[in-house]
Design goal:
single chain; alpha/beta; Rossmann fold; UDP-galactose 4-epimerase, domain 1; seven-stranded parallel sheet; three-stranded mixed sheet; 43% helix; binds NADP nicotinamide-adenine-dinucleotide phosphate
């Protein structure tokens, strides 16, 4: 299959590109810079120049492909509304180019965006209507127009070498403050997945996904945030401390809200329907590996 991948130069997108090429697919990767284009060529992909703001570039990329995987997102948490709106417009444009063809379109969402009804968020749970990111609603609307649009929900930590998401942000806060904190009793849970397992799931959804279905890329169903804070404390060699929920914003800034969420999630239906089996290390094992704290070791070496 010839697959148009947006976000092909990102942390998850690069793993998706590799996964697709290794499985014999051709990749047309969206690049908005020369550096991005160069990295795609080096990975064995073809380059499609454009951006999320240039909807015609998205339409022409999708029109030239047998399927689309959409992972690009403007990660500006201080300006989240416009980023979410750009994502919705991009999904509409991609879907418009695929209409009536039954070609697959996989969009990316988050397990924390699901309205959890039971002990674990499941693939059946609807997206939370109060959240500004409307990727899922846009994809579900497309599924009604003979587009094989599916949703892949990722947990708040997609981890692995090169991670620059929430967990590295927590690490930098702990380094700056000299303590690694959790909120309240720290028993609220975060699910997680390794980026290579996530990339494998994107391919399975591309090949076997059902229109309108949601899939969960969840390996660790729910790690108490206290354990994440403890692993960060070990990695940085700083004390692990409790902060009250009232101190969340002051200590953590914008990420305090997310780190306080109890968001355990299941991937049982995804595993059953697609035969997906995550094989990579879990988040705590990954945090115990060196790459999350290499710069700490490097700084210690340079300090002599
Ligand atoms: N990483 C996680 O832990 C995590 C967790 C849950 C959900 N997700 C979701 O998973 C998806 C991929 O995340 P990621 O971690 O791979 O993100 P990332 O490393 O920040 O990569 C973002 C990708 O989007 C591209 N992009 C950003 N703004 C763009 C624009 N205006 N036009 C065109 N391309 C643009 C970037 O291109 P450049 O290379 O040119 O910057 C890059 O390829 C996102 O939807 C994200 O919200 C990630």
């Amino acid at each position: 299959m010839r697959v148009f991948v947006t976000g092909a130069t990102g942390f998850i997108g690069t793993a998706v590109v590799q996964e697709l090429i290794d499985a014999g697919h051709q990749v047309l990767g969206l690049a908005r810079s020369d550096a991005g284009a160069k990295s795609l060529i080096a990975a064995g992909a073809q380059v499609h120049r454009g951006s999320l703001e240039d909807l015609d570039s998205l339409r022409s990329g999708a029109a030239a492909a047998d399927g689309v995987i959409h992972t690009a997102f403007i990660h500006d948490f201080s300006n989240y509304g416009p980023a979410a709106e750009a994502d919705r417009r991009a999904i509409d444009a991609l879907g418009g180019a695929l209409a009536g063809s039954d070609r697959p379109l996989i969009i990316t969402s988050g397990t924390l965006l699901a309205q959890r009804k039971g002990p674990l968020a499941t693939e059946e749970d609807a997206p939370n209507p109060n959240f500004p990111r409307k990727s899922e609603e846009a994809a579900i609307a497309l599924a009604a127009h003979r587009i094989r649009a599916s949703v892949l929900r990722l947990p708040p930590s997609v981890h692995g070498n090169g991670d620059h998401g929430f967990v590295p942000h927590l690490i930098s806060i702990a380094r700056e403050k000299g303590v690694s904190a959790y909120l309240g009793d720290g028993l609220n849970r975060w699910p997680a997945v390794h980026r290579l397992d996530a990339a494998h799931l994107y391919r399975l959804v591309l090949e076997k996904g059902t229109a309108g279905a949601s899939y969960h890329g969840v390996s660790d169903e729910g790690i108490p945030t206290r354990e994440i804070a403890a692993a960060i404390g070990r990695g940085l060699d700083v004390p692990v401390v409790r902060k009250s929920r009232e101190e969340a914003a002051d200590h953590f800034g914008w990420i305090g809200h997310f780190f306080g969420i109890d968001g355990p999630a299941s991937s049982a239906q995804t595993r059953e329907r697609l035969g997906w089996r995550p094989v990579q290390p879990g988040l705590i094992a990954d945090l115990n590996a060196e790459h999350y704290f290499e710069h700490v070791a490097e700084a210690a070496v340079s300090r002599g």
